Amino acid sequence: MKSRFLLLLLAGACFGVGLGFLVFISGNDTVKPPSTGTRLQDFTLKDLNDNQIKLSGLHGKPVLINFWATWCVPCKSEMPLLEQYYLKLKDKIAFYGIDQQETTNVIVPYLKENGITFPTLLDETGEVTRKYFIQGFPTTYFVDGDGILRAIQIGPLTTTQINTNLSALGIEP
User: Fold this and answer.
1) What is the pTM of this model?
2) Which CATH number does 33-168 carry?
3) Element at 152 (helix H, strand E)
4) Where are the domains of the chain?
5) Are the C-beta atoms of residues 12 and 4 closer than 8 Å to each other?
6) How many CA atoms lie within 13 A of 147 on its CB side?
């Protein structure tokens, strides 16, 4: 009976030490979704012309990042508004649409059919979408020239939301 008690005590102690170790090593390295006021993690994605675009390479210029997909109905309804702002402000802010795991054979005809010309990046593996904890489409990030996330909009944007968030970046629409 005594040996059984000691064995259970030893097993419990080992379990507790192991669990404590896991909690200790996870500490501050826990992956968290981006939040406003923090610097976005860097990424590099290809555009439709196979050029590498790196977020950190855009520092000094505000960035609007829109996560979307061709199958997303709200994305399609939002695209003309984004295109309008892109054409008006492309010298003041970098616009990037990040397509979720679709091929250029699907994306290019979709963009042409809908008259969309703002740059599209390919998240072929979904890595950036996961890194940024994108839960729904469309989702738009407004990033200042220092790479700090200033606003997140989940769902289709309205004119008022775009104007408010661009003004917060120092851009008058």
Assistant:
1) 0.81
2) 3.40.30.10
3) strand 149-154
4) 1-30, 33-168
5) no
6) 11
- Strand ranges in the chain using DSSP code E only, listed in sequence order: 44-47, 52-54, 63-68, 94-100, 120-123, 139-143, 149-154
Measure the CA–CA gap between 33 and 41, rounded to whole angstroms.
10
Strands 94-100 and 120-123: parallel
- Give Cα separations from 9 to 3, 21, 53, 57, 146 (angstroms): 10, 18, 56, 56, 54
Maximum distance among all Cα pairs of the chain, rounded to whole angstroms: 81
pLDDT, one tens digit per residue, over 57-83 is: 987 899 999 999 999 999 999 999 999
The whole-angstrom separation of Cα 97 and Cα 118 is 7
Can you tell me which residue has the tokens 């939040």?
35
Q: What is the pLDDT of residues 6-58, one digit of tens each?
A: 444 334 433 443 333 333 333 444 568 889 999 999 999 999 999 999 999 98
Per-residue tokens: 94: 């970098």
